Amino acid sequence: MKVIKNYLYNAFYQVFILIVPLITTPYLARVLGPKGVGINSYTNSIIQYFILFGSVGVNLYGNRQVAFVRDNRRKLTETFYEIFFMRMMTVLLSIGAFFLFLVFVPDYQVYYLAQAVSLIAAAFDVSWFFMGVENFAVTVFRNLIVKVITLISIFTLVRSYDDLTMYILILSLSLLLGNLMLFPGLHKYIDKPEFSSLKIGRHFKPSLLLFIPQIATQIYLVLNKTMLGSMISVQASGYFDQSDKMVKMVLAIVTATGTVMLPHVANAFANGEHEKTKDYLYSSFSFVSSLSIPMMFGLAVITPKFVPLFFTSKFSSVIPIMVIESIVILLIAWSNVIGTQYLLPTNQTRSFTLSVVVGAVVNLIANIPLIWIYGAVGASIATVLSELSVTIYQLVVIRKQVNYKLLFDDIFKYFIAGVLMFLTVLFWDRLMSDSWLSLVVEVIIGIVVYLICLLVLRAKILFKLKSVLNG
Fold first, then answer.
1. How far is it, in rounded angstroms, from Cα 108 to Cα 229?
2. Which of 159, 235, 330, 440 is 20 to 30 A distant from 273 in Cα terms?
3. Whole-angstrom Cα distance, residue 364 to residue 327?
4. Can you tell me the mean pLDDT for 47-69?
5. Any stretches that span the bilayer, and where are they (predicted)?
6. Pick from 116, 68, 352: which is nearest to 215 by CA?
């Protein structure tokens, strides 16, 4: 039940941190317009590289290392301070590199400086620690307060395109405030540091090994926006970013299992329970498939009606991008389970790294011709191809470690239910008007049809869920 509770906490948190942009996006699309949204997207994509290099893989590495030693308070204290101070130093180096970058880039400097507060915030990010000790409630409730303040600030202070700098500052400062608010909760787990016993250097190499896949991941998460802004226009970057936000919001519900299960599996693996780690893999794979398949089909079918209602007709270019990108919901769900929930906690870092590098290379190679020919639509196709390559590579890597029959058990039932749901909603979509009410009705119809299909097909996930709830 602890895993389920932590999943719900983390799912809520992951969705909630995206709720602010979900609530504000229609407002900002109207107030800032495609150009303002595009400038924010483009400059933020650049600052993410500096945040990435400053973080040196700590989010994944710190989570795992804390999970390994969380039962020993002394080791936990040492591990936290060693990793925290290491990250503090690397972020300072990254800040220096950022100001050097500004010397050579005359465009959008005021926006870059506003984005830079996010880089400072990265130095104080200790969310990895609370994930490692499996305390997800503290990150949820403390950040809830910050996000509410952010929401109020945006609607109060951002009124026109001229307030773009203020908007970026609000988002950046909210990250800093949210990170600082986590520190009071540390005393429950750790003591004051004994500086003489700290060995900060020992964490650099292993965190660097996890840094490599994060660099590669960042390439096909952020490079699309950077290349679109450079090769096409900041508006094209904005169109892709709007689609990406919606897809990532849906994905957050699914990938929340990864953050929850990583420390759980790592702890089981550290205790020599290897078969248990595989059982976790089979259960997680089935669970995320049952969620991601209907979400993929559902988002694709409602997008043509959703985009004009949500973003306004000015963002109609987002429709084909989002329809194509909805495919990655399933692909990332699968690679999240195999990579984050199995390869990383079982110390198969090299295989995880190579899988992400393969995805980055595919994305980079595909991006150039596809963006040049199709613009933002091409970037979405490249994203799908890169995520597909990651998933295929990981499935090949674990072929001798797992039973594919158990891994893909009942997947075909989820696909049948998903396709029938898609066709049903598509039929009703042709009959109903373009309004929020009809969109809500279509979503409800889709959920009901999918669940009925799972019941008729006697999908095992429903019986597992029933036994968990009864237990």
1. 12
2. 330
3. 19
4. 78
5. 7-29, 41-62, 83-104, 110-133, 140-158, 164-186, 207-223, 249-269, 281-303, 315-339, 351-374, 380-399, 411-429, 435-457
6. 352
Nearest to 299 by CA among 408, 418, 471: 418
Cα–Cα dist 254/11, whole Å: 8
Alpha helices per DSSP H over 133-233: 137-157, 164-180, 204-231
Tell me if 51 is assigned to some domain.
yes
Give the single-character DSSP code of 434: S
432 secondary structure, DSSP code = S
Its domain, for residue 60, covers 2-409
Domain-located, residue 134: yes
Which residue type does 339 have? G
Q: How far apart are CA 443 and CA 306, in angstroms?
A: 11
Instruction: Indicate whether 442 belongs to any domain.
Output: no
The residue count for the chain: 471
CA–CA separation, 205 vs 93, rounded Å? 17
Angle at 345 between CA 343 and CA 346, to 5 degrees: 65
Cα–Cα distances in Å, from 8 out to 260, 330, 402? 9, 20, 27
CA angle 345, 348, 354 (to 5 degrees): 125
Q: 436-456 and 274-311 helices cross at what angle (nearest 10)?
A: 150
Whether residue 457 is contained in a domain is answered as no
For tokens 């929850």, the residue is: 260
At 9, the amino acid letter reads Y
Structural domain count of the chain: 1
Place of tokens 């016993």: 197
Hey, what are 36's tokens?
A: 């303002």
Q: What is the pLDDT of residues 396-433, one digit of tens each?
A: 998 888 888 888 888 999 999 999 999 999 998 888 87
pTM of structure: 0.70
Whole-angstrom Cα distance, residue 420 to residue 218? Answer: 35
